[in-house]
Amino acid sequence: MKLPIYMDHHATTPVDPRVLEAMLPYFTQEFGNAASRNHAFGWAAEKAVEQARQQVADLVGATAKEIVFTSCATEANNLALKGVAAMYAEKGNHIVTCVTEHKAVLDPCHQLEKQGFRVTYLPVEHDGLIDPGELRAAITPKTILISIMTANNEIGVIQPVAEVGAIAKEHGILFHTDAVQAIGKVPFDVDDVKADLVSLSGHKFYGPKGVGALYVRRRNPRVLLAEQISGGGHERGMRSGTLNVPGIVGLGKAAELCRLEMAEEGPRLRRLRDRLSEKLHQGLDGIYVNGSLEHRLPHNLNVSFAYVEGESLLMGINDVAVSSGSACTSASLEPSYVLKALGAGDDLAHSSIRFGLGRWTTEEEVDYVAEKVTAVVRRLREMSPLYELMKEGVNL
Amino acid sequence: MAYSPKVIDHFQNPRNVGSLPKDDPHVGTGLVGAPECGDVMKLQIRINPATGVIDEVKFKTFGCGSAIASSSLVTEWLKGRTLDQALAISNSDIAEELELPPVKIHCSVLAEDAIKAAIADYQKKRETKAGVAAVR
Questions:
Q1: Which domains does chain B have, with CATH numbers?
Q2: What positions of B carry a catalytic annotation?
Q3: For chain B, first and last CA: distance in Å?
Q4: CB 3.0 to 4.6 Å from B28: which of A169, A387, B86, B121, for a disulfide?
Q5: Do A388 and B19 touch (CB under 8 A)?
């Protein structure tokens, strides 16, 4: 077993060697511009891009023409939100989203609010899921877009997106979902979910960084977007800029591998994740899993270790790469807004660790991480005044 | 967070972890910070009644690496000092010694607060004791 161990696959994933192999020719030999219509270099690049478009479409049950390549999912989210807002402004000025969305949705929403749009941020229940009843109640005649993520990047909970899509359809409102964490990990079909816009990112499923895509529905209804990057009318006028051909080829290959291997990979990761959870629970008291375990990505575990601060825990397990919702690990010095939204209390947010298992995570690694975390939590609790007070029966 | 080797050393090998009997009249206890802020320090000092010098120090800290290191460091510094000398320790001394990054300065502030709180607790005990004696 090699140290350090990488268990932060929600942040990013390594490029699958098969993906890299597919990409390499497009840096040197097949370097053409996919927009060059008059020579073989351009044709070869375009062909590769169209194959990748099909591969991405196949992963999500779309048609190739509905895939718009972007530089990342943040761009895809911006294009979806701002593109719809600008295009449908005459129809209405209200957007519904959720408090636990990624900043790549929340920040564009804040920007739109400054431009006069009204945004409703739905709360979540203790399990991290929205209440579809609250969504219904939030809809007004002015609502033009609902944006609810498929799976949360911190706690891995899977929102009832099919229900959200059905509600959106019922009211004739467009539905966007940031599916960055879910796509490639769990089955996702744009028609099952009745999604009109779907954001995804290559580096979250063993593709390269710097490439993402936005699914834009073309039928029932045909979704129109105001372009956010102009200059040449690439990607059917929705996103200008020379296509990142090697990146797109990598995204396509990564999508194909996920489609073919998901049925095997998902249950394997779920077993490993459950093993990690069981071992932690066996070794320690005062630990809490954040978010629904039932509606959850198979490779995610987010746990709060009471009486221990997250950053110090990360320091203690320095040969294991994971993330914490502690304020001390964020630039803002605020604990995770996602965990706070669950209503667990700031102290438990400070004590949280996110484990993200991945394609090459082994049982041996899981066992090592469980043992190491258990030992370090025990050591830190021995020096925690809160643990001492709790043992003395003081109500914190 | 990229910490200095001194922070890492104090984190890995914290000095003087533990507790002193808080009802001991010669022990002062400072408990500062709040769980919801992610930092709680408990610092305890014992003053030798004959010499007026701090002869024992213990700490327990819930917090990040620099909070643990700051409290561990001050336990080393406090031993052998009089209360006036202890009060002279400032947060900037701590931050400088540990080379704390700017976002972690509040950890050194908390450590300074813990020293002040422990001394205040000790002095309060003395006053109460003196008051009791006067009534008798």
A1: 5-127 (3.90.1010.10)
A2: 37, 107
A3: 57
A4: B121
A5: yes
CB pairs under 8 A between A and B: 72
Interface of B with A in 76-95 (CB under 8 A): none
Contacts of B20 in chain A (CB under 8 A): none
Its ipTM equals 0.92
Do A206 and A294 sit in the same domain of this protein? Answer: no
Count: domains in chain A: 2
- Report d(CA A336, CA A306) in Å as an integer: 15
The answer on A301 and A208 residing in a single domain is no
User: A87-113: per-residue pLDDT in tens?
Assistant: 999 999 999 999 999 999 999 999 999
Q: How far is B86 from chain A (nearest CA, A)?
A: 22
Neighbours of B136 (CB within 10 A): 5
Question: In one letter, which amino acid is B92?
Answer: S
**What residues of A are labeled active site?**
328
Partner B contacted by A394 (CB < 8 A): no
Which residue does chain A place closest to B39, by CA atoms?
A: A309
A237 in the same domain as A126? yes
DSSP string, A41-60: HHHHHHHHHHHHHHHHHHHH
Is the CB of residue A325 less than 8 Å away from at least one CB of chain B?
Answer: no
Q: Where residue A326 sits, what CATH number does that domain have?
A: 3.90.1150.10
* Interface check B44 vs A, CB under 8 A: no
The CB-side HSE value for A382 (13 A sphere, CA atoms) comes to 9
Give the residue numbers spanning the domain of A355.
5-11+261-391
Classified as helix, coil or strand, A6 is strand
Provide the CATH number for the domain around residue A93: 3.40.640.10
Q: For A7-55, write each residue's pLDDT tens digit.
A: 999 999 999 999 999 999 999 999 999 999 999 999 999 999 999 999 9
A230, A309: one domain: no
| Percentage of chain B modeled with pLDDT above 90 | 86
In this structure, are A100 and A158 located in the same domain? Answer: yes
Confidence band for A223, pLDDT divided at 50, 70 and 90: very high
Residue of B nearest to A329 (CA): B1
Say whether pTM exceeds 0.80: yes
